Amino acid sequence: MIEICCGSYEDAINSYLGGAKRIELNSALYLGGLTPSIASLTLTKKNTDLSVICMVRPRGAGFCYNNIEFEQIMEDAKVLLENGADGLAFGFLNEDHTIDIKKTMEMVNLIKKYKGEAVFHRAFDCVKDPIKSIELLINMKIHRLLTSGLQAKAMDGKDMIKILQENYGDRIEILAGSGVNASNVNELMEYTKISQVHSSCKDWCTDVTTSGEGVNYCYGPEGHKNDYDFVSKELVKKLVEISK
């Protein structure tokens, strides 16, 4: 299974045309991915047969949320599920870098009510004890775990991913993400024995109105001053083909 990380409806269409079967739908990927718009979800469900996992995340930075943020998260989750999301990606941590069991269980119960998939995202990569944490997630009936093995890139965390797959892969789906592309996907899958990967298949497109004489709205890295990122249909095709 190749899952593509999408930041818009256009990204979803490019993923679909590239041969993907499942996407994680977000907004604001430059912040690590935030809750997507309802329009991007409904248009994707209307015009593709993709399985759509929606991110539920109200802001950038970490995953320790106050009561106001959690109220918004749960309302967003309900609305996304009511509008066709096949599952939700989320993550709740305490200040001591442990899983927030209460909030996680509330989310899982809501998702199960709609017969969706509960996916704990890369908040997991900030926990102090990955073994205790994955056991908690399994006990809470989390369907899938997205992880880079507690490292910035999945290839760097491949040893941890392998451990998680070997010891827990029969009880929870392990989805490896961050830095996965056509050049390393087979090596990663062969080493870890995972069967699912998560990739952005990112490329850049220029919008010259990103900057003016005295202001700019740039967020791209060096060399992409006036660019925004998008999912490349060609990179999706390449990833899908090479991983068959």
Automatic annotation (TrEMBL):
Top-level lineage group: Bacteria
Pfam (any one): CutC
GO molecular function: copper ion binding
Gene3D superfamilies (alphabetical): Copper homeostasis (CutC) domain
SUPFAM superfamilies according to UniProt: CutC-like (SSF110395)
Similarity section: Belongs to the CutC family.
Protein name as annotated: Copper homeostasis protein cutC homolog
Species in which this protein is naturally found: Clostridium tarantellae
